[in-house]
Design brief:
The chain has 34 helices and 20 strands. By secondary structure, it is an alpha+beta fold. Among the domains are: 2-118, no CATH class; 146-164 and 729-811, no CATH class; 168-215, no CATH class; 263-372 and 652-716, no CATH class; 426-600, Jelly Rolls (Sandwich), CATH 2.60.120; 926-993. A five-stranded antiparallel β-sheet has the order 8-7-10-3-15, with no helix packed on it. Strands 9-4-14 form a three-stranded antiparallel β-sheet, with no helix packed on it. Strands 1-16 form a two-stranded antiparallel ribbon. Strand 19 (855-857) and strand 20 (864-866) form a beta hairpin. The longest helix has 32 residues, at 375-406.
Length: 996
């Protein structure tokens, strides 16, 4: 009613006699009522009322909100006057007065005159360097090499000059560490120095070394580590339980192989997002999908909480968020994940964009996927799987009418097949169905429930057997209600307050034994005491309940308590419980000790029942249907036989369709159909809005932001569409992102200092023309990373010395303009691998499962990774660090002290810190002490006397002989403290841990 009155009142006042002035009359209304949500700080709905252009033409959903000359058609007037009950403006506080609305109407009807001087700054959100098309600039004529041309021009503009070229020894060590992560041997270094002198510093000698190192298999191992940092690869799940991922490593090996093979970057990206779709039948196309699953995964939130629960929805939302952040952050260097609760605060990324990206991954889970590394075998395997799925779907469609006609007869027969009608009392001729105990229903899975048996007198208990139930509810069937976690205790106190003995435990933890649904298989446990456990009362406490449909329960068919003679002393005894559904005869506490429980049929009985089921179905089929069904069944058998002829498949932990049971059912049970994705108000799963379609970022206009993928299309088509969008030649983010990352690893800092954020909250490019030239060159020349490396490494800019220059530092203290090369500290992996190279123990075996430098405690539940218990002399741990089994929850202490990347985070740039902890770790860690001993043994085997050993050790560590003063000091130290301690000193000198 009020809305109608307002409309009527403002309509009457609209043709006011006074001339409305925007600055005097309108702007104060906007400032008082509107700009808090539609101004410089916030832009709800992409709309602003402090900038003329956006106010008159902008807005995400209702543009134009102001129609000049037509107040009646302007949604702004409609919203502020209450004409739309679902769009109250302002949403909080006092509404506009009748007079204020009349002023707005009069101003709009008069033409909505808005002087430019009264408008805020009109910043086009798309007018940002990273979003503009990549245009290849012409290199300045100041140098022949394009990289030097751009660098030197900027140096000259700042009255700076490049530094002289580094000496041959320094360049050789720099290239080896940069491209392989390993030091050159003294022989390799001497050969390069000699060849450089003989050729008088010829570029051919230097470039030949670049090419040789790029062709080395060590190159892929070195640069894969950089990539795995960015995608936060790990070999465990993370979160609370942090269980192992024993099949994650094939993705790591894929990255190494792809880099060594110089796979074109477009294909490298596309394989990691949709290799199974875009390159079907290839092993790489499956292994590469490990990218999608590289990040942490919440085992509890996925495997123990169903998707119907709020916590389950949150877990899966966060899982997809990680996939979106990893994809867009890695390949496009923007923070799209910041838009999950609201439109991005700094960049033109909307919530709609974010949830459209979530929709791309909505069918996926993280799980093992079977495949073959051989492409021919894999293509055969994938084809057989596809045909099996198609046959299963067709057979189900043919059988559905037959099942409907069979009705209850088929249901009863299926119950018998499942064991629902045969009981433990059948031998006495009792055909009673599956009676049992059923707790009260709980909305929380961790609610505690218990049942208790009064044995009538204190008894010595040798073992306890729990028999599962059967129930048709929600097709749970066998094992209905069997607890996920439970304990068994004995006491003479019926309240279990005193004298409680733990009858059964696992790994010294009360509630740490997770059980999958056992079906109808009985669970039997013996007492922890060798001579039995005595007590009158036995209690089974469920600490984690079994999932039902939208709730949780505890159910058992029978509890059997056996003494040493094998007698069930619980039979017929009194059972009590914390709570129960008493619905006799089916559910009641007394059923726990009545001797009745469902049991699975024997193999022969099951065979007979299946034959009866076949006869029943065929009795409702006509001849064409029988023939069709027989052909499909024969096809199933033939396909299964073809699969068995293949050798056992491999497995990779990847983003894929999961078919499971219980809480972690995945979308496989639904044919892999993507989950519906809704725009969530404030990012809350409890506040879903409209359903989203798959898409990407609307701020880039080279392709439509929403993908034209049919809802009925296989889920992989969404990923393929995103892969094509990311690798489109016109996508400016992709090509700038990767060349900036490569540049960073060669110089220690990217041309953009924030490699994961090319938005307004990130850094500006120090050399924008060079960045675009490199991006265009890389994109247009086939996306070869090795060519990009060679281009950068052959520049004079890269070959510069790293010595300081006080005068240059006054102008550019941070060396942003690159008047010298940056002095680089070795990463943790390079330090470790170099130590092994010094000792002669480095194992260069490539690929395969990762080596472990820890001992695992409690592997069945929450593994505890004990690095302190590992043997530093175990040869299995002497492989390269890239093959180390990487744990998320408990990072390797020694590696962590040396700034190793945290695998739970996307690390775009490692720290290069110096600390006392690093000095202590390098001096005293067991690995360093052990390898120093091996280093000394190597020197003793290779050299005859102490002076020769000192010279050889110095050459191995630093690529040069010690000067006379150092040799004298080292000799005295070795004579006083022994050669192993001298080797520890060498491995702790700064010259060992710095590249230059």
């Amino acid at each position: 009613m009020r809305s109608l009155l307002l409309l009527a009142s403002t309509a009457a006042l609209a043709p006011a006699a006074w001339a409305v002035d925007f600055v005097r009359d309108v702007q104060p209304i906007f400032e008082a009522k509107c700009v808090k949500c539609h101004g410089g700080e916030k832009q709800k709905g992409g709309y602003r009322l402090d900038v003329k252009r956006i106010a008159l033409t902008g807005g995400d959903n209702h543009a134009p909100n102001i129609v000049a000359g037509k107040a009646g058609e302007s949604t702004l007037v409609k919203f502020v006057s209450g004409g739309d009950p679902d769009m109250k403006m302002p949403p909080k506080g006092e509404p506009l007065t009748v007079e204020q609305i009349a002023t707005l109407r009069a101003w709009i009807d008069a033409g909505a005159a808005w002087p430019e001087s009264a408008s805020g700054a009109d910043h086009d959100p798309l007018a940002w360097w990273s979003l503009l098309p990549v245009v290849r600039p012409v290199p300045p004529p100041i140098a022949a090499h394009p990289v030097d041309a751009f660098i030197w021009e900027k140096l000259a503009a700042n009255q700076l000059a490049p530094s002289p070229e580094a000496d041959a020894r320094t360049l050789c060590r720099r290239l080896y560490f940069n491209l392989t992560g390993l030091p050159p041997t003294p022989e390799e270094l001497a050969r390069f120095v000699d060849e450089t002198q003989e050729s008088h510093g010829s570029r051919e000698t230097y470039e030949a070394l670049v090419d040789r190192l790029l062709a080395s298999p060590r190159y892929g191992e070195r640069w894969a580590r950089h990539w795995l940092d960015v995608v936060h690869y790990g070999d465990t799940h993370g979160y609370d339980k942090d269980k192992q991922r024993n099949n994650a490593w094939p993705y790591r090996d894929y990255v190494i192989r792809a880099l060594n093979d110089d796979k074109p970057y477009t294909r490298f990206v596309q394989e990691q997002l949709a290799g199974d779709v875009l390159f079907p039948g290839t092993g790489d196309g499956i292994e590469a999908l490990g990218f999608i699953a590289a990040g942490p995964w919440d085992l509890i939130g996925h495997a123990e909480v169903p998707e119907t629960k709020t916590d389950g929805k949150i877990a899966r939302h966060l899982d997809r968020d990680d996939m979106v952040a990893n994809t867009i952050g890695t390949f496009s260097s923007v923070t799209a994940h910041c838009a999950q609760c609201h439109n991005h605060k700094f960049d033109p990324i909307s919530q709609e964009d974010y949830f459209s990206l979530q929709a791309v991954f909505s069918a996926l889970d993280r799980t093992d996927r079977k495949y073959y590394r051989d492409d021919q075998q894999n293509a055969r395997f994938q084809d057989l799987q596809r045909r099996q799925r198609e046959t299963d779907v067709t057979l189900a469609a043919v059988e559905e009418p037959l099942k409907q006609r069979a009705g209850k007869a088929l249901t009863d027969l299926q119950r018998r097949i499942d064991g629902a009608s045969k009981t433990t009392a059948q031998k006495q001729g009792n055909q009673t169905p599956d009676f049992g105990y059923h707790s009260a229903i709980s909305k929380e899975q961790d609610a505690v429930k218990w049942v208790q048996i009064d044995l009538g007198a204190t008894a010595t208990i040798a073992s306890v057997t729990l028999l599962p139930c059967y129930d048709d509810f929600n097709q749970i069937g066998a094992g209905f209600g069997f607890p996920v976690r439970f304990k068994i205790e004995v006491s003479d106190d019926p309240e279990f307050k005193t004298g409680v003995t733990q009858f059964w435990k696992r790994h010294d933890e009360t509630f740490m034994a997770d059980f999958k649904n056992p079906g109808l298989t009985p669970f039997t446990t013996k007492t922890v005491a060798d001579d039995g456990t005595a007590g009158r009362y036995l209690r089974i406490t469920a600490a984690k309940l079994a999932p039902r449909k939208d709730d949780f329960i505890f159910a058992l068919a029978e509890v059997q308590v056996f003494d040493a003679a094998g007698t069930n002393v619980a039979l017929g005894k009194t059972a009590t419980a914390l709570d129960a559904i008493e619905a006799p005869p089916r559910w009641r506490k007394a059923n726990l000790t009545d001797g009745l429980a469902p049991v699975a049929p024997t193999a022969d009985e099951r065979k007979q029942l299946l034959s009866e089921r076949e006869t029943l179905l065929l009795s409702f089929a006509d001849e064409p249907t029988k023939s069709r069904r027989a052909a499909l069944l024969a096809g199933q058998t033939q396909l299964a036989a073809e699969v068995t002829k293949l050798p056992p498949p491999s497995a990779v932990y990847a983003g894929t369709i999961h078919t499971g049971s219980g809480s972690f059912a995945g979308t496989g049970a639904n044919g892999g159909k993507p989950r519906p994705i809704f725009l969530l108000a404030r990012g809350q799963v409890t506040q879903p809005g409209r359903e989203m379609v798959s898409g990407a970022l609307g701020m880039l206009k080279f392709q439509p932001a929403r993908f034209a993928v049919s809802p009925e299309a296989p889920e992989g088509e969404r990923r393929a569409a995103l892969a094509r969008w990311i690798t489109d030649p016109q996508n400016p983010l992709t090509w700038r992102s990767i060349v900036n990352r490569v540049w960073q690893y060669h110089f220690g800092r990217g041309l953009v200092e924030t490699p994961n954020d090319f938005g307004r909250n990130g850094g500006l490019p120090s050399h924008p023309e060079l960045l675009d030239w490199l991006a265009a060159e890389f994109r247009d020349s086939g996306g070869s990373l090795k060519k990009l490396h060679r281009l950068i490494l052959t520049s004079a800019t890269y070959r510069q010395g790293s010595a300081g220059n006080p005068e240059a530092e006054k102008v550019d203290a941070g060396n942003t303009l690159l008047w010298r090369q940056n002095r680089r500290k070795l990463e943790a992996e390079a330090v470790r691998d170099s130590v092994l190279a010094m000792s002669g123990k480095l194992d260069l075996t490539m690929g395969g499962a990762g080596w472990q430098d820890f001992v695992i405690e409690r592997p069945e539940h929450s593994p505890h990774y004990r690095y302190d218990l590992a043997d530093p002399n175990d040869p299995k741990t002497w492989r390269r660090s890239i093959y180390r089994f990487t744990v998320r929850s408990q990072t390797q202490p020694w590696m962590t002290s040396l700034d190793c990347a945290d695998p739970s985070m996307r690390v775009d740039r490692r720290n290069e810190s110096l600390s006392a902890l690093q000095a202590l770790a390098l001096l005293n860690n067991g690995f360093m002490v052990t390898q120093a001993q091996h280093f000394a043994a190597r020197l003793e085997a290779e050299c005859g006397d102490l002076p020769a050993r000192i010279d050889r050790g110095y050459e191995l560590a630093f690529g040069r002989k010690p000067d006379p003063a150092d040799r004298t000091k080292l000799t005295a130290f070795a004579e006083a403290n022994g050669l192993p301690n001298l080797c520890r000193v060498l491995l702790n000198l700064n010259e060992f841990t710095f590249v230059d």
